[in-house]
Amino acid sequence: MRIEATNLFNHVNLGLPDSTIGVPGDPSPNAGRINSTADNGDMRFFQLGLRFSF
Questions:
Q1: Is the pTM of this model over 0.90?
Q2: How would residue 40 be classed by pLDDT, with cut points 50, 70 and 90?
């Protein structure tokens, strides 16, 4: 018997922070902020497997 789990506790996987700093006179208000979740942020996933051998 086999049990596999991905993201067992269903935590949010955050994306990368905004790397645009801005220039003098036009600062970026989102510099260093994380505005999204990661693209591969799968939700909770379980897989069960059972094998019989004779």
A1: no
A2: low
